[in-house]
Structures are given as structure tokens and as C-alpha cells.
Amino acid sequence: MTLCLILVGAIAFGQITFPPGGTNRKASVSQRIGITDVRIDYDRPIVNGREGKIWGGLVHYGFADLHYGTSKAAPWRAGANENTTFTFSTDVLIEGEPLKAGKYGFFIAMGPEKATIIFSNVSTAWGSFYYDSKDDALRAEVPVVKLTESIERLIYVFSDETDDAAVVSLQWEKMKIPFKVSVDLEKEQIAAFRREFNSGIFYRYWQNMQMAANYCLVHNINIDEAIGWADRSINTYFGEKNFATLSTYAGLLEKKGLKIKADSVMKKAYPLATTLQLYSHGRGLENQKRNAEAIAVYKMSYDRNPDDLYSCLGITRSYALQGNSKEALKYANKTLTFAKDTYFKGYADGVVANLKEGKPID
Q1: Number of folded domains in the chain?
Q2: Pairing with 357, which of 43, 49, 262, 280 sits 20 to 30 Å away (CA)?
Q3: What is the pLDDT of residues 76-108, one digit of tens each?
Q4: Within a domain: 362
């Protein structure tokens, strides 16, 4: 009687940990796209000698009655055992269609050449036996791609990554089902800045306020709010007047059409700049096709520090912009005397070679 009570008590407390039975394996993969975290949790079945019998056989095409559960038109569970799930930390776009942040069950209605991927609001099911289309959050039709080599165990892969997108593909046996996940990075970045504005990490450090403001300047977005951030990076208790904060503020003012005020701020900024900052600023002006202003900045830097690597690089670019290759080459050769490490020496050698051949410098 005592032994019986002990056994019943043990069962009530749950099961101890064992490896999963069968040949399937639990897995997860995640990647950050922009500032959005994407996570996939799934179980990995194996081919196990069933080549040529997976697609249209073990994995049914379209929607089918699986003769279990309540669904009479169930897609494939896109893995094994429990639902495959996708979790997105922010809103995303799937094949260009919007999907809210959250956790979703993932299914696929397979076909020989095309497949319908399905994100379901139900993420806690076992397989697709109780699938109901009314729970769909998003559907998209995507291509089915044949592979030359067989993938023994099902896998999800991220590829073709850019700053704001990646391709996710399910790969198994000799088939791949790819689809694009993208984010509105600028929108999410501004939203993150606004959340962080109310925390100490934002307003206690001028660097964070300046970086947020400069992001808006570079991307030409959210200018009015960014001007406020830039102003705080200079004038609050934690602010600092330096070239980074002042030049960012001036750039934003210019975006608003306040050129006279922007020029006044830049006059205060230039004396605070290092040669590297002046060189970077000049390159930025070049990228905006403001060559006359870039030339003036490069000359200012050289006049101030003629025996400096960045000043010499700048004045080299200045003469190149004016079409004076002879003078540009003269200062490029001077740059070589200051280029000590391998990277800068290689870059300076490239500048000299391009000028000698009459090519533009990078």
C-alpha cells in the first residue's frame, strides 16, 4: 500500500527528462533582421530511405482530411510533432504582406511547383489535425525549388540577408520552399528610439541622443523630432558641445531649410573637430555632391594640421575634385609618409596608382 502511494505521487509530479523518442529531433534557429528578432522552433524528421516518396506521399499535396482531429482540409505541419512556430519581435512583411509581431503556428499546403505558406494565430497545436482556416493570420503563395543534393534531416535556413530582409527556406530531401521576411527598418528604429527616450540609456548619454538624431539625418526621416534630440545632446545637463553633436544639429536644421542658423552652428563646430572628423565630414559632403564645401573643409583641415594622414588625404581629394591631378599626386605621395599600418599604406598606394593612371580615387 505504501509503495502504491509513492508511485501515484511520483506520477502526479510529472515525468523525468529523457531524450525524445523516434527519429525526429527538436531544433530552433533565429536571426536578427535589422533590429527584429526572428525565431523558428520545429521538429526535424528524416528521409530515412524514403527518397522520392516524401513530396506528394508522406507530405500530402494541398489540403487533406487526415482522418484524425476536426480538420477536413489540413495543410502539412511543416515539420514533425508539435506545430512549427515562428516568433517575430516586431511587425514584419512576409512576401510583402504585413504580419504583426507575435508567435504563429506555421503550415504549408504543398504542391509540385508552388506552395501556400500559412501563418496561424494558433501556435500551440499538435500538428495540423485541428487546423481551421479562420485562424489564419497570413497566407502567401511561394515557389517550390528543386535541389540537386538531398537533405536528410529537415532544416530551416536563413539566407540572402540584407539590412532589412532575409530569405527563410524549409529544406528537406530534394526540395526547398523559400520565402522572404522583411522589416520596415526605419519605422522600427524610430519606434525603438522613442521607447528608449524614456530610459536612462537615452537621455543620460549625449552619444545616444546624437546617434539617434544622426540616424534621422542620414536617412532623411523624422526631422522635427530629431532636431529635439540633437538639441538635447548639446544643451541638457548630460549634453556636450562637440563636433559630432553640433554638426548633426546643423545638418538637421539645414534639412528644415534653416541654412543661416545651420551655418552659424557649423562655425562653432569646426574648431572642435579632429582631422578624422573633418575628413569624414568632407567625404559626406562629396557624397551629397557638395564638392565646393568639401574642398573648403579639406583645405581647412590641411591648413590646421599639414603633417597629418587625414589632412593629407583630404587635400589630395580636394585637388582631385578640382581636376588638378599633378597637385593631387604630390599630396598623395606625402600621404604615404604618414601611412604606417598595412591598411592605410595599401589605400594610399591605390590613390597614387589611380592618379598616375588618370583614374578617379575612391
Answers
A1: 2
A2: 280
A3: 999 998 899 999 999 999 999 999 999 999 999
A4: no
> Would the pTM count as exceeding 0.85?
no
12 occurs within a structural domain = no
DSSP string, 302-359: HHH-TTSHHHHHHHHHHHHHTT-HHHHHHHHHHHHHH--SHHHHHHHHHHHHHHHTTP
Give the distance, in angstroms, between the CA of residue 115 and the centroid of all CA atoms in the same chain: 27
- Return the sign of the alpha-carbon dihedral for residues 210, 214, 216, 220: positive
Residues 51 and 206: their CA atoms lie apart, in Å, by 60
- Looking at 129, 148, 183, the residue that finishes a domain is 183
CB atoms within 10 A of CB 188: 20
Examine the pLDDT at 9 and tell me if it is beyond 80: no
List, as one string, the DSSP characters of 92-125: EEETTEEE-SEEEEEEEEB-SSEEEEEEES--S-
- Give phi and psi for 244, each to the nearest 5: -60, -50
Query: For residue 30, which of 87, 73, 72 has the smallest C-alpha distance?
Result: 87
**pLDDT band at residue 243 using 50, 70 and 90 as cut-offs:** very high
Q: Do 58 and 102 fall within a single domain?
A: yes
